[in-house]
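During data preparation, a discrete fold description was generated, as reproduced here:
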Amino acid sequence: MITRWSPGGKPVLLTLLLVVGFSLYSIDTEIPELSLLFRLPTGGRVSGRPMEDHDGMFLAASEDRYLYRVDRQGQILSRSDLPGVPQGFNALGVDGTVYISFRSSLAAINPSGGLLWRHHLSAPLAFDPVISADGRIFLVDASGTLTALDHRGELLWKETLNGGPGGQSLIDSRGVLIVPDGSGFLNAWLPWGRFLWRFRLAGRQTAALAAETALYASSDEGTIAKVSLQGTLLWTRRLENFALYLAEFSGGIAALDASGRLSFLSRDGEMLHDAVYAVPRPVGLFSLEDGLLAVGGGGGVKTFSREGELTGSGSIPSRLTTAGLSSTGGLIAGSEDWNIYALASRARDNQVWSGPGAETGNRWNRRFVGAARPVEIWKSEPDYLLLSALMASGGREGREMALDIIQEILNKSSPGDRRYPPYYGNFARDIAGEPFERPILQSGRVVNDYPDLRKEALELLSREAAYASLHTLRTAAAREWFSDNRIVAIQGLGRIGSDPDARSTRTIAGILLAGNTIETKPGLTAVSMEALHRILAYNGSAPDRSLYECAVEVYRRSRDRMSREWALKILRFET
């Protein structure tokens, strides 16, 4: 019988039920569990593949307009401003420069977070940039234009692809640029723009891999072709479904298809092992020193040996949108819940505590929780382990103590000071978002657990005004059962100010226009209008039509003086 701990702190029993008569048995699983190292919230969806810099730190661009640099324990080392909302395609240069795409441009950002240059394009990028060993940057945009830049962002040469963009470009072992086009051809150029050859695939490219002596490319017709470095066909193999990802291992190559099946092929095209079902909705396949790592969009992660045997399994508690691999074989991923996750590719050591945001508890920590009362722990260990233990208790006392610890840390910090670990905010966000999703019935009325604690947590988040709290505050503003708590959440959204996708604005406006809120809740209305004005001032943009109409309704229907004054300021707002 295996017991593990869920992120909420409550034990989950993993058993296999064997019904023989009326008997119930539980058995051990032989598949090691992969360790979730950390979860780091950001203020927006992670855009593009997370990367690892030359110092072994993780880099991730977020739609909150920040580039995050994070260490292996999930601590934020730096958060650099971006010149816009990233589009989702990026790359890391040989000198540590980070290249990030925006709506119709590519920006180069130095390792310290400063903007080096920005090159404007005629259309948005279609795929990740490709960087050569001498620092040249190759881009394919949505119009089918191939652009080559030098390391200073200056144009070197351009070409137009037949049929538009066809797939992710790559550089082979000789330094030759390989670019698929929309008509089903692979095209080869030397870095300075001399065309070499074309090779026709069976369909449009879906994945490609550059090995030491050859190229492998899959098409949407379900075939994998091995192509020589001179552009001639060596062999082709048909699979049941087309491959989305290709990866190399010591005995050949592996293909992860659209249905989540993993196939193992020799370098001669022979099927080595029967295809195994790996992960649903695949978002990545990576080579490990001793096998392969497959990543599913649903959060499932599995490792396989070279022989196709499952060697490890883990999960991330959210749908993944993008994934990358670290030099140590760990997974770094972005998710739909605006978090950055890191997962080890090896089995969990039950005697080692996992990092911030990971599963709250293992065997050693359960002994720790049971060894002393919460008050005694509080006095001796005011750190992540203590907060995890307090949250794992599942009761009011533990949460009260956790909030007291966080409050004390914030009181000792000067405004803008972010030296304290970010997991303090994680725990406050957990408390702020916990109960209203699980209302309970009591005497025929819907009530919630600990609304006062939830309000205290929201006040901490509102006071800190961190972008990482944006999602929690938006959710609380939209779904809170208690008006006072909703007011605190809306105040927090106004203090943060940033609203790159206008969701905060839409959420607050929707609250005001629902039913007779404007007439019956003057306090909520006044706070909401002030928050909307703060957001407008922060973003420096005039109100759109929906916000303008909301302000008109408040000014027309409200009898509250403050509400009407804030509505008038919005109507008169100028950039």
Remarks:
- The two ends are 63 Å apart (CA to CA).
